[in-house]
Amino acid sequence: MAHRPHFRFILAFFTLCWMALAPNIGTAQNLFAPVARVNDQQITQYEFDQRMAFMALLRAPGNPEEEAMKGLVDDRLRMQEARRRGVIVSEEQIAIGMEEFAQRAELSTEQFLQILSQGGITEETFRDFVRSGLAWREIAGGLFASRVQISESELDRAIALASGQGGVRVLLSEIILPAPEGQTDAPRRRAQQLSQISTLPAFAAAARQYSASPSRGRGGRLDWLPIGNLPPAIRSQVLTLSPGEVTEPIDIPGGIILFQMRALEETAQVVLATSSIEYAIYDIPGGHSAQGAATDIRNSVDSCDDLYGIAHGQPEEVLTRVTLPVSDIPEEIALQLALLDTNEVSTSLTNASGDTLLFLMLCGRVTAAVQDVDREDIRNNLRNQRIGALAENFLAELRADATIIYP
């Protein structure tokens, strides 16, 4: 059973994140000077600073200034549309929405508000953020719910994809940026820049220049991969990509990884879902600079059993071999295992401090038939995704028709 994170630890962590990333909201010359106008409504410097601090605390991806302004403009458009349609969000709905948001971090509303207060963020900023989202959800449901119908064939395909079956495979490229503890700012900025790449040649060139993965010599290119091998969170990201598009940066111990979609195809072959994986990790001192030693070991072992000979006479903790359910494997390990066949090796990962290279070897996979699923839950998830996409298109239309001025 997973342990609930200690509240004081979470509070300290988020406070440190805010201190490192949030703007200095105490130095503005005029907190209530307008920084933008959306139709007939202003956005003030105070609101902008508050949103920047809020996003920094949440470690939201993207450029903080650009994303904060875009979010505030979109919220103005959402609430203007809500007023036009007579949509009112009650205080009870807002309280429930705040509680649901806080629960994502396994916190109560009161605990989450305490974290916000530590970062100089007011409760009203959080309430406005939640109110806008709830109003937009009601508008989207009213406009688009009746237009979205999920067929049984679509539902079957979604269940197959979710379970790792269905014969879907992807062709990806990767970039792994070293990011040891205490040295993550520059790699994170670079990762955000690389995530904006939209062409295959540009990503390949960046992989050759920046990636610490052994695939850098191939421009980061990986072989065809069954979609079911990927961890569910990464699978959902990858399935939304078009060829050339890149995932958001994904944190791993000692580094940051990005994937680019090169191709996706459905095959006649049905790939059974993996229920558990056996793998081994051998620690090599030296971090990414130990790739030469890792290559020598790779050339001398044929299976996980051979690693016992490599580790002979060394402390027991240098070699770990486990069999775990897929859901229990750390995401960064699961990501690398997804790219491997039995007895293949990855040397892309280090420990968090970056001073130990992890020689990761896949010993074997255990597959299982699809377990019973709630078809109505999956149908509802699909409907919500479709409604969300239609709502985003509608918001883009509102944005295009609006008068937006930046003084």
State the gist of this model.
The chain has 407 residues and is of the alpha+beta class. Helix content is 46%, strand content 19%. The protein folds into three domains: 7-146 and 386-405, Triger factor/SurA peptide-binding fold (Orthogonal Bundle); 166-266, Roll (Chitinase A, domain 3); 274-368, Chitinase A, domain 3.
Could you say which structural class the secondary elements and strand pairing correspond to?
alpha+beta
Strand order of the largest sheet: 4-3-6-5
How would a crystallographer describe the biggest sheet? Answer: 4 strands, antiparallel
Described by the principal axes of the CA atoms, the overall outline is globular
Mean pLDDT: 84
Q: Which spans of ≥5 residues are poorly predicted at pLDDT below 50?
A: 1-28
Output the CATH homologous superfamily of the largest domain: Porin chaperone SurA, peptide-binding domain
CATH class of the largest domain: Mainly Alpha
Radius of gyration: 24 Å
Number of domains: 3
CATH architecture of the largest domain: Orthogonal Bundle
CATH domain fold name of the largest domain: Triger factor/SurA peptide-binding fold
Distance between the termini: 53 Å
- Count of beta strands: 11
Q: Helix segment count? A: 14
Q: Give the fraction of residues assigned to helices.
A: 40-55%
How are helices and strands ordered from N to C?
Answer: HEEHHHHHHEHHEHEEEHHEHEEHE
- The fraction of residues in strands falls at 15-25%
